[in-house]
Design brief:
single chain, 12 helices
């Protein structure tokens, strides 16, 4: 069964927009031409790929499977082109980095400096976001390297741990919690919190700690989808929060204090992750090597200088 790669590309765009007219406009093709392209694919697979949904169209179950495979095929094709171009042009190439907030703040600036000092022609694309979202982009081939939380073991990925991070409860130094003879989980629930969004893994871990002891979850007064915002936020509001100890040291300049409690201390490894069978440009491979040899030192320097 032969499938035209151009037809697959048109199919992806139609699936993304859910509308033949909009897809035709984006692609610079006529609607009849796109319809024939979809028909050829449906004839090849012996099943409809779309069904009508209001004024647009939606994927069928077969269409959903094909879309996932088409994305993987396009990613493999793009990577092959990148690999050949890197070889033909004889330079270090391009690297696409996805980074969690901790690495973005404390590692990436110095890491990029090291890489560019060795290969000045290298181009770098950086996306900062939650590790869970970036992991999906890595899986789809949208980024080359993920620098952040080490994922659970997965045959699809290769991971190198670089350093450990601790996430702790913190607040302003004059918070009444420090007047207590003994700080407990129960005593923390008497105060209001500023926390990351519920979709953030560290927030989920903290909620689970309280749940596992038969307690309610913290009373959240401020929710933020920006983790780097939290230190400055709690310094001014006097709320409790849950932040990286490295961020706490680097960003607070004495304006915040850790609430010492072993039960609310999350130790987590951070590292660099890439697809085991994916193409890595020379720049990407060199970046992995630099992280392995200099990562811990770079973050220690960044925290110490802040």
């Amino acid at each position: 069964m032969a499938v035209n790669l151009r037809d697959l590309g048109y199919f992806e765009t139609v699936a993304e927009l859910g509308h033949l007219g909009q897809a035709a406009e984006r692609l610079g093709r006529t609607q009849p031409a796109l319809s024939k392209s979809i028909q050829r694919l449906e004839e090849s697979f012996g099943a409809p790929l779309f069904h009508r949904a209001g004024r647009g169209i939606q994927l069928t179950a077969v269409g959903e499977v094909l879309l996932a495979r088409a994305r993987l095929l396009r990613s493999a094709s793009d990577e092959a082109m990148r690999e050949v171009a890197d070889f033909a042009q004889g330079h270090a190439g391009h690297v696409r980095i996805g980074s969690g907030p901790i690495a973005a703040d404390h590692v990436l600036p110095a890491l990029c400096q090291l890489l560019l000092s060795e290969a000045p022609r290298t181009t770098i694309d950086i996306t900062v976001g939650p590790s869970m979202e970036l992991r999906q982009r890595l899986s789809e081939g949208g980024i080359d390297l993920l620098i952040g939380l080490v994922p659970a073991p997965d045959a699809q990925f290769q991971t190198h741990s670089i350093f450990e991070d601790a996430v702790v409860v913190a607040t302003s130094p004059d918070h009444p919690v420090f007047d207590l003879r003994e700080i407990t989980l129960h005593s923390l629930l008497a105060h209001a919190w500023a926390l990351p969004s519920a979709s953030i893994p560290s927030r989920q871990w903290l909620d689970a700690v309280f749940h596992s002891r038969g307690l309610g979850t913290p009373r959240v007064q401020i929710t933020a989808n920006s983790i780097p915002l939290l230190p400055a936020l709690i310094a001014r509001t006097g709320l409790l929060s849950f932040v990286s100890r490295r961020t706490l040291v680097a960003a607070s300049k004495g304006a915040l204090r850790e609430v010492p409690l072993a039960e609310t201390t999350l130790i987590r490894p951070l590292g660099v992750t890439y697809r085991r069978d994916g193409y890595l440009s020379p720049a990407s491979r060199r970046l992995v090597s630099l992280l392995q040899s200099h990562g811990e030192r770079l973050i220690a320097q960044a925290v110490g200088e802040a």
